[in-house]
Protein backbone atom coordinates (compact mmCIF):
# COMPACT_ATOMS: atom_id res chain seq x y z
CA UNK A 1 0.00 0.00 0.00
CA UNK A 2 1.17 3.51 -0.79
CA UNK A 3 1.82 5.82 2.11
CA UNK A 4 1.64 9.50 1.38
CA UNK A 5 4.18 10.46 4.01
CA UNK A 6 6.75 8.07 2.61
CA UNK A 7 6.59 9.64 -0.86
CA UNK A 8 8.27 12.85 0.30
CA UNK A 9 11.37 10.98 1.49
CA UNK A 10 12.13 9.34 -1.88
CA UNK A 11 14.71 10.89 -4.20
CA UNK A 12 13.48 12.72 -7.30
CA UNK A 13 13.46 10.66 -10.46
CA UNK A 14 15.25 12.24 -13.39
CA UNK A 15 12.74 13.47 -15.96
CA UNK A 16 13.34 14.03 -19.65
CA UNK A 17 13.30 17.69 -20.68
CA UNK A 18 10.47 18.74 -22.99
CA UNK A 19 8.21 15.82 -22.01
CA UNK A 20 5.10 16.10 -19.82
CA UNK A 21 6.56 14.98 -16.48
CA UNK A 22 3.29 13.45 -15.27
CA UNK A 23 2.86 11.40 -18.43
CA UNK A 24 6.48 10.30 -18.26
CA UNK A 25 6.07 9.23 -14.64
CA UNK A 26 2.89 7.31 -15.55
CA UNK A 27 4.73 5.53 -18.36
CA UNK A 28 7.64 4.68 -16.08
CA UNK A 29 5.24 3.25 -13.53
CA UNK A 30 3.56 1.17 -16.23
CA UNK A 31 7.01 -0.19 -17.15
CA UNK A 32 7.52 -1.35 -13.58
CA UNK A 33 9.29 1.59 -11.94
CA UNK A 34 7.32 1.86 -8.66
CA UNK A 35 9.18 4.98 -7.52
CA UNK A 36 7.54 6.89 -10.37
CA UNK A 37 4.18 6.62 -8.61
CA UNK A 38 5.69 8.05 -5.44
CA UNK A 39 6.77 11.07 -7.47
CA UNK A 40 3.25 11.49 -8.85
CA UNK A 41 1.94 11.45 -5.28
CA UNK A 42 4.52 14.04 -4.28
CA UNK A 43 3.57 16.28 -7.22
CA UNK A 44 -0.21 16.10 -6.73
CA UNK A 45 -0.93 15.26 -3.10
CA UNK A 46 -1.67 18.88 -2.08
CA UNK A 47 -3.95 19.51 -5.06
CA UNK A 48 -5.95 16.33 -4.56
CA UNK A 49 -6.20 17.05 -0.84
CA UNK A 50 -7.48 20.61 -1.53
CA UNK A 51 -10.22 19.31 -3.79
CA UNK A 52 -11.21 16.52 -1.39
CA UNK A 53 -11.21 18.94 1.55
CA UNK A 54 -13.88 21.05 -0.10
CA UNK A 55 -16.26 18.12 0.08
CA UNK A 56 -15.15 16.45 3.31
CA UNK A 57 -15.37 18.78 6.27
CA UNK A 58 -12.76 17.41 8.66
CA UNK A 59 -9.03 17.33 8.01
CA UNK A 60 -8.74 13.73 9.22
CA UNK A 61 -11.52 12.50 6.93
CA UNK A 62 -10.09 14.48 4.02
CA UNK A 63 -6.68 12.88 4.59
CA UNK A 64 -8.30 9.42 4.61
CA UNK A 65 -10.21 10.13 1.39
CA UNK A 66 -7.05 11.54 -0.21
CA UNK A 67 -5.19 8.37 0.76
CA UNK A 68 -7.99 6.26 -0.70
CA UNK A 69 -7.78 8.30 -3.92
CA UNK A 70 -4.10 7.52 -4.35
CA UNK A 71 -4.67 3.85 -3.57
CA UNK A 72 -7.26 3.76 -6.37
CA UNK A 73 -4.88 5.62 -8.66
CA UNK A 74 -2.11 3.14 -7.85
CA UNK A 75 -4.39 0.25 -8.79
CA UNK A 76 -5.64 1.95 -11.95
CA UNK A 77 -2.47 3.53 -13.28
CA UNK A 78 -1.35 0.32 -14.96
CA UNK A 79 -4.30 0.63 -17.35
CA UNK A 80 -4.24 4.44 -17.70
CA UNK A 81 -4.30 5.27 -21.41
CA UNK A 82 -3.86 9.03 -21.28
CA UNK A 83 -7.24 10.20 -22.57
CA UNK A 84 -6.97 13.01 -19.99
CA UNK A 85 -3.94 14.53 -18.33
CA UNK A 86 -2.59 12.62 -15.35
CA UNK A 87 -3.41 15.55 -13.07
CA UNK A 88 -7.02 15.67 -14.27
CA UNK A 89 -7.28 11.91 -13.86
CA UNK A 90 -5.97 12.09 -10.28
CA UNK A 91 -8.27 15.01 -9.42
CA UNK A 92 -11.25 13.14 -10.89
CA UNK A 93 -10.44 10.12 -8.72
CA UNK A 94 -10.24 12.43 -5.70
CA UNK A 95 -13.61 13.99 -6.50
CA UNK A 96 -15.21 10.57 -7.01
CA UNK A 97 -13.80 9.28 -3.71
CA UNK A 98 -15.02 12.41 -1.90
CA UNK A 99 -18.50 12.06 -3.39
CA UNK A 100 -18.59 8.38 -2.41
CA UNK A 101 -17.50 9.29 1.10
CA UNK A 102 -20.24 11.93 1.32
CA UNK A 103 -22.84 9.46 0.11
CA UNK A 104 -21.71 6.89 2.68
CA UNK A 105 -21.58 9.46 5.52
CA UNK A 106 -24.54 11.64 4.57
CA UNK A 107 -26.29 11.38 7.93
CA UNK A 108 -23.14 12.31 9.80
CA UNK A 109 -22.59 15.58 7.93
CA UNK A 110 -23.49 18.81 9.76
CA UNK A 111 -25.96 21.06 8.00
CA UNK A 112 -24.13 24.29 8.75
CA UNK A 113 -20.95 25.34 7.01
CA UNK A 114 -17.75 24.61 8.87
CA UNK A 115 -15.89 27.79 9.75
CA UNK A 116 -12.78 26.61 7.91
CA UNK A 117 -14.48 24.89 4.97
CA UNK A 118 -12.73 26.99 2.33
CA UNK A 119 -10.31 29.36 4.00
CA UNK A 120 -8.06 26.73 5.56
CA UNK A 121 -7.20 25.10 2.25
CA UNK A 122 -7.79 27.96 -0.17
CA UNK A 123 -6.86 31.60 -0.11
CA UNK A 124 -9.84 33.92 0.29
CA UNK A 125 -10.29 36.48 -2.48
CA UNK A 126 -8.24 39.57 -1.68
CA UNK A 127 -11.24 41.91 -1.55
CA UNK A 128 -12.85 39.89 1.27
CA UNK A 129 -10.77 40.99 4.20
CA UNK A 130 -13.68 41.17 6.63
CA UNK A 131 -14.49 37.88 8.39
CA UNK A 132 -18.22 38.47 8.06
CA UNK A 133 -17.98 38.86 4.27
CA UNK A 134 -15.88 35.72 4.07
CA UNK A 135 -18.49 33.77 6.03
CA UNK A 136 -21.22 35.12 3.73
CA UNK A 137 -19.21 34.09 0.67
CA UNK A 138 -18.68 30.55 1.99
CA UNK A 139 -22.38 30.28 2.82
CA UNK A 140 -23.33 31.50 -0.67
CA UNK A 141 -20.94 29.06 -2.36
CA UNK A 142 -22.42 26.23 -0.30
CA UNK A 143 -25.88 27.11 -1.69
CA UNK A 144 -24.79 26.68 -5.31
CA UNK A 145 -25.94 23.59 -7.19
CA UNK A 146 -23.21 20.90 -7.04
CA UNK A 147 -22.00 21.23 -10.64
CA UNK A 148 -21.83 25.04 -10.43
CA UNK A 149 -20.01 24.85 -7.10
CA UNK A 150 -17.47 22.37 -8.48
CA UNK A 151 -16.81 24.42 -11.63
CA UNK A 152 -16.49 27.68 -9.69
CA UNK A 153 -14.09 26.21 -7.11
CA UNK A 154 -11.91 24.49 -9.70
CA UNK A 155 -11.72 27.64 -11.82
CA UNK A 156 -11.22 30.18 -9.03
CA UNK A 157 -9.41 28.35 -6.23
CA UNK A 158 -7.35 25.91 -8.32
CA UNK A 159 -6.90 28.31 -11.26
CA UNK A 160 -7.62 25.57 -13.79
CA UNK A 161 -8.44 26.27 -17.43
CA UNK A 162 -12.00 25.63 -18.59
CA UNK A 163 -10.68 22.64 -20.53
CA UNK A 164 -9.28 21.13 -17.31
CA UNK A 165 -12.42 22.04 -15.38
CA UNK A 166 -14.51 20.30 -18.04
CA UNK A 167 -12.44 17.12 -17.72
CA UNK A 168 -12.86 17.09 -13.95
CA UNK A 169 -16.54 18.00 -14.01
CA UNK A 170 -17.19 15.41 -16.72
CA UNK A 171 -18.79 17.88 -19.12
CA UNK A 172 -17.93 19.85 -22.25
CA UNK A 173 -15.83 22.99 -22.08
CA UNK A 174 -18.84 25.11 -23.07
CA UNK A 175 -20.94 23.51 -20.32
CA UNK A 176 -18.19 24.33 -17.81
CA UNK A 177 -18.23 27.97 -18.96
CA UNK A 178 -22.03 28.13 -18.69
CA UNK A 179 -21.95 26.60 -15.19
CA UNK A 180 -19.28 29.10 -14.16
CA UNK A 181 -21.33 31.99 -15.54
CA UNK A 182 -24.46 30.86 -13.67
CA UNK A 183 -22.47 30.28 -10.48
CA UNK A 184 -21.09 33.82 -10.57
CA UNK A 185 -24.55 35.21 -11.35
CA UNK A 186 -26.11 33.27 -8.49
CA UNK A 187 -23.37 34.42 -6.09
CA UNK A 188 -24.02 38.03 -7.09
CA UNK A 189 -27.73 37.51 -6.45
CA UNK A 190 -27.07 35.87 -3.08
CA UNK A 191 -24.54 38.48 -1.96
CA UNK A 192 -26.17 41.54 -3.48
CA UNK A 193 -24.16 43.65 -5.88
CA UNK A 194 -20.95 43.36 -3.86
CA UNK A 195 -17.90 42.38 -5.91
Ordered list of secondary-structure elements with their pairings:
Blueprint: H1 4-7, H2 21-30, H3 35-55, H4 59-76, H5 86-104, H6 131-142, H7 146-156, H8 162-169, H9 173-191
Verbal overview:
The protein is mainly α and about 200 residues long. The chain has 2 domains: about 110 residues, RNA polymerase sigma factor, region 2, helix turn helix motif (Rna Polymerase Sigma Factor, Chain: A); about 80 residues, Arc Repressor Mutant, subunit A, CATH 1.10.10.10. The protein contains 9 helices and no strands. The N terminus is likely disordered.
Structure characteristics:
9 helices, mainly alpha, 195 residues
In short:
The chain is mostly helical.
What general form does the structure show?
globular
Largest sheet: none
Q: Helix count?
A: 9
pLDDT below 50 for ≥5 consecutive residues: which ranges?
1-11, 109-128
**Kindly state the mean pLDDT as a whole number?**
79
Instruction: Name the CATH superfamily assignment of the largest domain.
Output: RNA polymerase sigma factor, region 2, helix turn helix motif
Helix/strand order: HHHHHHHHH
DSSP, total strands? 0
How far apart are the termini? 46 Å
Integer-rounded radius of gyration: 18 Å
Count of separate structural domains: 2
Secondary-structure-derived class: mainly alpha
Strand content: under 5%
Looking at the overall shape, the CATH architecture of the largest domain is Orthogonal Bundle
Give the helix proportion (percent range).
55-70%
CATH topology of the largest domain: Rna Polymerase Sigma Factor, Chain: A
Q: Report the top-level CATH class of the largest domain.
A: Mainly Alpha
